[in-house]
Structure to design on (149 residues):
């Protein structure tokens, strides 16, 4: 298999509170810094997607999720401006502070801040991959392309 054929698998969390979503402002990562994105990350070797989104939610925003509350809402095939592609599995969870705990910026070395934003008014500096996941979720589209012509 060539490197061009590799498509990393990401998990992305749409943590919702009424009509708002939790976003994180990237900083200090060297990639897409200054852009808002969903709590997310790559699958680790031998890890399933449900375990990955639970792990990423805990690592990035400090919330505790249970497998039975995750709802798969979209798959996004994204290609960045460098031409590298990846596949994202987007999961939605309705936020419940009593069950999940309050979100915190658990990775200040990678994130300037976290913020609840209206799902229908994403900041102009939202990473395109995140925007595509949110759009697919809001429009009920199970699959979307992002960054492809």
């Amino acid at each position: 298999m060539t490197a061009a054929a590799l498509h990393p698998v990401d998990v992305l969390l749409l943590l919702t509170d009424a009509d708002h979503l939790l976003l994180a402002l990237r900083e200090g990562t060297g990639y897409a810094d200054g852009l808002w994105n969903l709590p997310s990350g790559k699958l680790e070797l031998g890890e399933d997607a449900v375990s990955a989104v639970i792990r990423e939610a805990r690592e990035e925003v400090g919330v505790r999720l249970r497998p039975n509350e995750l709802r798969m809402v979209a798959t996004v095939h994204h290609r960045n401006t460098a031409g590298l592609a990846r596949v994202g599995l987007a999961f939605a969870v309705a936020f419940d502070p009593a069950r999940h705990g309050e979100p915190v910026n658990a990775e200040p070395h990678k994130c300037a801040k976290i913020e609840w934003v209206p799902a229908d008014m994403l900041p102009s500096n939202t990473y395109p991959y995140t925007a595509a996941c949110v759009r697919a979720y809001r429009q009920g589209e199970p699959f979307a392309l992002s960054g492809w012509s």
About this structure: The longest helix spans residues 49-61.
